[in-house]
Specification:
Blueprint (H helix, E strand, L loop, with lengths): L20 H17 L2 H13 L6 E7 L5 H12 L3 E8 L2 H10 L6 E4 L13 E5 L7 H14 L3 E7 L3 H14 L3 H12 L4 H10 L6 E5 L3 E7 L1
Parallel strand pairs: 1-2, 1-4, 2-3, 4-5
Antiparallel strand pairs: 5-7, 6-7
Helix pairs in contact: 2-3, 6-7
């Protein structure tokens, strides 16, 4: 039985090189389904809504780092249209295959994508909101402190993070569900590892403190997620 006391740093297959596009496509499609069924997209929307609620402006520039297949940006676009909010959306991902899939996945919706390490991006104008979903757990703690500082320094109104809680129920549930229903070898391998790379609340508090960030909202969300919100 694995220990849930400390974060795992076992590498996920998705973080490797030379993954065939078809494998990426299957992985991204299944992650979209998982996020839809287990409330991941709902949590991302909640992050946007809570930051937008603090301001009266109707024109928002929102950037996702580690955007993967672009599903979160598609969901935000739909929500914004329904609520008559003007949004400019962009996604950044270091994996060119993920970006290629994202461009196909959200074609003709006016969402921009960039292949890059987010740390190398220089904005002509800082986005209002920067966010990530299921991205932070890919990094070690010292890298995460730098990531928090970067998100804070490069956003005008604030940033948020949607990521996993490290919990035995989450681990064994996703392990069983993916073995039963997934057709992606990436999802079957990486989903349980992702949980083991997830966080306890006190870990987030420690990381935020090291990054010099205070008065940050850290709330638990179903199913086994953390929503971290920093309003500037």
């Amino acid at each position: 039985m694995p220990s849930f006391k400390y974060r795992s740093y076992q590498q996920e297959l998705l973080d490797g090189n030379a993954i065939p596009f078809e494998a990426i496509r299957q992985n991204m499609a299944e992650l979209d389904t998982i996020n839809h069924l287990l409330g991941g997209h709902r949590i991302t929307l909640k992050g946007v809504q809570l930051l937008v609620a603090n301001h009266t402006k109707q024109n928002w520039n929102i950037v996702e780092i580690g955007c993967g297949g672009g599903d979160n940006l598609r969901v935000i676009k739909k929500w914004a249209a329904k609520n008559h909010i003007d949004v400019t959306l962009a996604g950044i991902d270091i994996n060119k295959e993920c970006v290629e899939y994202a461009k196909q996945n959200v074609a003709n919706q006016g969402i921009q994508f960039l292949v890059s390490d987010y740390r190398d991006v220089q904005f002509d104008q800082k986005p209002d909101i920067i966010f990530s979903s299921l991205f932070s757990h890919h990094f070690k703690d010292d890298e995460l402190v730098d990531q928090l500082k970067w998100m804070n320094a490069n956003s005008q109104k604030g940033f948020f993070i949607n990521d996993l809680q490290r919990h035995p129920v989450a681990y064994y549930s996703i392990k069983l569900l993916t073995q039963l229903f997934s057709k992606s070898y990436l999802v079957k391998n990486d989903a349980p590892i992702s949980v083991m790379r997830g966080f306890h609340k006190e870990e987030w508090r420690r990381l935020l403190k090291k990054a010099g960030l205070h008065n940050v909202l850290c709330r638990w969300e179903w199913a086994f997620r953390w929503l971290i919100i920093c309003s500037i």
